[in-house]
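Researcher: Please generate the 3D structure of the following complex. Treat every line as part of one assembly.
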Amino acid sequence: MESLLEKIKAGVLWDFPGGVHPPQRKKLSNQTEISLLPLAEHYWVPVKQHIGAVNHILVASGDKVKKGQALTAFNDKMSVPVHAPTSGTIGKIEPHVSAHPSGIPALSIQIIADGLDEWCEISPKIHFRTLPKSDVIGFIQAAGVAGLGGAAFPTHVKQTPNQPCEILLINGVECEPYITSDDRVMREHADEVIHGIEVLAYILEPKLVVIAIEDNKPEAINAMEAACAGKANFVVRVLPTKYPAGGEKQIIQVITNMEVPKGKISADIGVVSQNVGTVYAIYKAIYLGEPLIDRVVTVTGENIETAGNYRLPIGTPIAHVLNHVKHDNQHNERVIMGGPMMGFTVLNKQVPVTKITNCLLIPTQQELPDAPPEQACIRCGECADACPASLLPQQLYWHSKAKEHDKAQAYNLFDCIECGACAFVCPSDIPLVQYYRQTKAEIREANEEKIKAEKAKERFETRNARLERDKQERLDKHKRSAELRKQSLNTDQSAQDKIAAAMARAKAKKAQKNSTNDITKTDQNAEPNTLENTTLENSAVEKNAVESNISQSNSPIKNKAQEAIARAKAKREAKLNNNASTEEQNTTAPPSHKVESDLDHSPNEPVEADPIKSKAQAAIARAKAKREAKLKNADATATNSQKASASDSASQKEAEPKPENQRAATLTHDSTIDSNNDEIASTVSPIKLKAQAAIARAKAKKAAKLAEESKPAAHSSAESDKTTLEPKTAADQTDEQVDEHLQTSTTNEPTEISEAMYQTELEIDPIKSKAQAAIARAKAKRQQKMAEQASVTQPENAKAEANIQFDAEAKSRAKAAIERAKARRDQANQLAHGGETGSSSITNTTTASSLDSESGNSEDENANQVKAAKVKAALAKAKAKRQKS
Amino acid sequence: MILLYSLIALGTLAVIFGLVLGYSSIRFKVESDPIVEQIDSVLPQTQCGQCGYPGCKPYAQAVADGDEINKCPPGGEATIQKIADLTGREVKPLDGGDNIKKVAYIREDECIGCTKCIQACPVDAIVGASKVMHTVIIDECTGCDLCVEPCPVDCIDMLPVKGKPETWKWQLQNIEIKQIS
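Model: Done. Output below.
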């Protein structure tokens, strides 16, 4: 290395292979001093102007910014911020046509200039030598300095090389034709450039600083030599003009005779190179405290009369530049960003100047004619001679055209620096570089795809593994808990005791239940006589039932639960007797649970007599109802439905005002039912709709279950008065009877309730359409079930109902629900009528058989109804979905 | 006598070779068909099931077993070419479907948070939880559109991937753009 440094100092130069000598055309623009243009109205600052990560934007639309204020953060090591080029207001922050050959919009910040060009607070660091190196590097990063030569590589990254820096190479070659920005900077700001180099030298401590300048810039060479005078280790090297001597790899080869190994960077061989423009920007960042907000841009071409170098703020739209330089304003003029060899034609004149824009070339047609049509490759080998990277361009072209990516890579496609020398010499006018660029992009994309595919596969496999693991864990958990249960059963004596105790309790309960049932039956036994003999009025019967019940249940000193059970049963029985034949086909079954629960707890009030504690009472009543259900129903399904009814009563309780219960207590049971339901309807507020929906769903579920139960007990409901007439039913029939009770009380729904439901629906807030939809669906389902179990329906009525329902479906869903409710009410009314007529004949025991035959007649009509209900439900669902979307 | 010797010699050779082959068939046993792994590695791993198989690996297996090689729309012509090279079969035009790269996009204000799409995604590229909005991690989405079908409110769109300057391919024979203003 020492001998190399000696050689360099002694002035030895090497050469790189290939290279071309295009016409320089630098005289066009290097005759005048760097000048300024008036401020543009607005600037578009691309957020990402460098290689590396995208930054966070610090400003928002409408913010006021000052010149030099940072617009983005730079938390990443590889990123630099961008700054406001002038003072003004932040306009849009949106994708704007980018300074890229594709013109793909890139996120940019618009700054509407206020014309004041006011600087933000800046702090020069002239005494940088007293500061730690890392701080100085930090300042350079904060100033947004990136390589102004071409790739905008963040400068501060280059200042922290892995290897100690031997040679600091300042690239003032500027080999591309037309471009003179570095030339003018060196001529006019030689001292500043030297100051910038000193900053770099302080950080890097190189053994030698080489300033390389091509021999076509004698004024720049003189200026730099004058500025370097007296500086040890500062060498100005003059290179023979050859394109592309300015490429980093080429200049290192020329100066040091070293090649940058494939896949490595120059710092790995101890050389750090910086462009003159970048060094000048570092000077401004450290000595003046100014961030990189402008750069010297060569505006040239024969189309421009006032060709020269301009200090343009970053973000200046090209259109603004063209408006302020004298040029033949041709409509289809080409604007090339960069030089003629490596530049690209911009798509749009709103493209902003960026940190890498060193030249705007606006040539005439004669000066830079359109590329002639491409011809076949004649394998002359000119391109191979011209290639500065010693590649075989013709082979690369061949494989690129055939899309043989692996072969192109085997010929070191990625070592191509895209200098364009091969295309320049090609006698067939093949745009070789374009082929390479395309192939490179394709290979990069393929690699990306491959990485993505691997990642996707990994994720897919991880996901499968996770699912499998979850499944296994679940199984294990179940297994473990089962084992634990088993173990504790075997080992824990107390647990066994508990189980034994529980079993004993269950037995006791069963015995108790049997006795209760007996009581109830005797009660019923006693009652039906009055029923049959005296009157059929519901209220009277119920009163009798309750009264007799209470008197019955008061005598033993058993618990209150028993009382309630007995009462409820008696009531149901009574109701059964009265309504069974007439109203069991009624479609509004679920609301009956409300009634049921009312019946369960409202009679409790006079007995327990404490009006203040009505809430607690209600809770007790509910608990009782539950217990009762348990007692009555050995099978699980019945229990479930009873629970649902309990929850019904709970939610109903919320809806009801407190005095309600008390009033109910004083009224006869019929009126209790009525008033309760009216009350429910009127007091249910839209807020309770959700609860209502839940209720409706629960009811639907219950109805479904009941429907299942009803199959075996199809005519049992009709036979219910028979049961009461012949009270001494066998004890083992008790369960069945209970089912019947449930069944009939469910189906025996007074008209008032359907009316109540109708009212409720009227009240439904349209906003709660979701809840409504759920209710509607639940109702449809319920209806469908009810239709199956209904035993008396007038065919015309059913048809009319179906028609009404279909008409309603054509309207909005909410309306449909109302319509349905109406229809149901009508039907219920009619049925009530039928019930009345039926009730007249209820006294004779043949009712059961007549009911059976009636149910047989209406079977097919019911099927129709089921179908209608199904269609309706589907339509409602579809509508809900459509409305949502 | 010569006959006997030759019989003995050949018989001995046969036994030796039989033993060698028998041993090597156990010693150098190949667990699975290596061609399956190779085909799987050239497939795009979208796990989309457009080939009719539940994932890329099963399709690779099917190709190795003789199924058509042109059933992978996400892979496109390039994948067909690669499979053809691997299996030594004729290149065929793609069987249906376009291979424009797409990613799923959830219209977030319409999402009801049902998590159905999350369960459908084979690569866990959708984030979200029950009753809250879901969104797609675009970088992880393979564009298999398996999430579109389960969505109850149809709020998932398959959008073509936007071009980036980094992945832009230089157009050679494009129509030249003229400035008109």
